[in-house]
Structure formats: C-alpha cells, structure tokens
Design goal:
Order of helices and strands: HEEEEEEEEEEEHEEEEEEEEEEE
Number of helices: 2
Structural class: alpha+beta
Strand content: 25-35%
Distance between the termini: 91 Å
Helix content: 25-40%
Strand order of the largest sheet: 2-1-11-10-7-8
Radius of gyration: 32 Å
Shape: extended
Length: 302
C-alpha cells in the first residue's frame, strides 16, 4: 500500500505537468489556419473577397464581414451562407433588391459556382473553392448520373424486347400468309403485315463556330470560358482578346453569354454585353477581332 502511495506521489504531478505543457502549446501554437470556402469577385474593380466563414454578412456598414464602399449598397445588404446541401444567399430587411443571374431574390435563393449576384448597382461573381459542400454536390450529381444511366439501360432493354416481339409477330404473319395462299388455289388475297419501327431519337448539339479558322467547339458542362489564356475552353489567338474575356453559361432557359469583366467589351450581334444574354441559333459573338457563331444542330440517330 505504501509502495502505491509513493508511486502516485511521483506519477500524478508528472501527469499534471504534461497536461499543463500541452495546454500552453495549444494556446500559443494551436490557432487554426484560416480556410477559404469561396469568393465573391467585384466585376467592376476585380477585387476578390474571400468567404472564410459558414455565414458571411455583406454591406456598406463596418460591422459586416465584407465591407463594400458603394453608395447603392445599404449598410447590411445580404448574407451568404454555406450549408451542408449547398450555398444560399439571404436578403436582409433593406429595401435594396438582390438579383441572382438577373432574377430577384425573395427571402433566400440557392447559388452555384459562377452565378452573377447583383447588389445595388454592382455585379459580383460567386466562386466556390474545393470544400465538403462542393464534394457533396459532386457526389449527388454522380449518383443522379448513375440513376439516369440505369434508367437509359432499362429503356434500351425494353426497346430491344419490343423490337424482337415485333419481328416474331412479322415472321408469324408471313408464315400464315404463305399457308393461306397455298390452301386457297381458287382465289387470292393479301394479308397486311405490321412494320417494325426502329428506335429513332433526335440529338441536339449546341456549338460555337469560328468561321475564320473553321474550328467547331461543342458546348458541354455548365460553363465555357473564352479568351487567350491557356486554361480557356475556347482559346483565341486574335488581337485585343482578353485572357478570360467572355463566358458561356448554361441556365434553365438555355445557353447565355456573359462578359467576364476583363475590361474589353464583348458584343452580341453588335451590342455590348452588360448582363447575361440568352443565345439563339445564328447569333454572332464578337470577342476582340474574333467572330464566333452560335449554332444549334439537330441530328436523327437510329
């Protein structure tokens, strides 16, 4: 018993010292590194404001997390919130409207990577960094794609079964026709056989055509960048073309062209693009000295 007491007199103070050292190290060195979840970029000045919290207040007031020095923006304009199912923008009690891709926000609105947010008279581009929310969205998208592929496979199997059944019915009808013709020597008659309809589907392709070079760029994904930079999806070599001058973004209503805020104007059918503009077959996009044509092609595939 005395031996245990002597050991505890040595061990307990040692444990206390170790815990005290750990606490001191945690206080001095344990400051977590700041993590950036996304950005909002001022399309007028080009300034990027990081979103490093799950909820970020935006406005002209000094108490906001992101302070914007514009007279058209109230003291507290909006709150951008990062949730487990995605990103949201909430309007406050201010009378100044908030728009996402040209649509007014009522109470709250989901926002995605590349969306254009208008606060007051200033436009901002919303960008998402690589964070768990984005990965969850990608996983959901992959699951939806797998479900669509499985449904398409089932439809193809059902279609092939229908085709096989129609072919069997056609064969049986021909056999019955031959039998009737052989047994009825006095007269003749015709039996109408059903036609087998092939599976025909129409595929629509949206593309950008550079008629000067003959290049054709098929639009895919949700966002296509146009410029002279290497990372541009449509890379142009003409003069007066910005590194990232214009973007073509897929909305619910279709593809639209936007100016990327490079300082060089983007024209649609001769008019300057100041807000997202929907594209229609035959529209001409002028980027610097380059002329790009938006074309919609429909093909029949059997």
């Amino acid at each position: 018993m005395e031996f245990i007491t002597d050991i505890s007199r040595i061990v307990l103070p040692l444990i206390t010292v170790i815990l005290l050292v750990k606490c001191i190290l945690a206080l001095w060195l344990g400051h977590p590194k700041e993590k950036i979840y996304g950005y909002i970029t001022d399309m007028h000045s080009g300034e990027r404001h990081p979103l490093n919290m799950w909820e970020t207040s935006i406005g002209r007031g000094s108490s906001c997390d992101i302070v914007l020095d514009y007279n058209s923006i109230p003291r507290v304009q909006a709150v951008i919130s990062r949730r487990i199912d995605g990103w949201y923008i909430f309007e406050t009690l201010s009378k100044a409207p908030i728009k996402v891709n040209g649509t007014s926000v009522s109470k709250k609105q989901t926002i995605e990577n590349g969306d254009i947010i208008t606060m007051g008279k200033v436009r901002f581009r919303f960008e998402i960094a690589d964070d768990p929310v984005q990965r969850v969205g990608k996983q959901k998208k992959k699951a939806a794609n797998k479900t669509a592929e499985a449904s398409s496979k089932q439809n193809r199997q059902a279609s092939s079964q229908q085709t096989a059944a129609a072919q069997r019915a056609n064969t049986q009808t021909r056999q019955s026709t031959r039998t009737a013709a052989a047994s009825n020597k006095a007269g003749s008659y015709t039996v109408e056989t059903p036609r087998v309809q092939k599976n025909v589907r129409r595929v629509t392709q949206h593309c950008i055509v550079n008629k000067d070079t003959g290049e054709i760029f098929i639009l895919c994904g949700n966002e296509v960048r146009i410029g002279s930079a290497r990372r541009s999806d449509i890379k142009l070599k003409g003069q007066n073309v910005g590194k990232t001058q214009a973007m073509i973004v897929l909305y619910e209503d279709g593809w639209a062209v936007e100016d990327a805020g490079s300082g060089r104007p983007t024209l649609l059918n001769g008019r300057k693009v100041t807000a997202p503009q929907l594209l229609f077959d035959g529209d001409i996009i002028a980027v610097g000295d380059e002329r790009l044509y938006y074309r919609v092609k429909t093909k029949t595939v059997s």
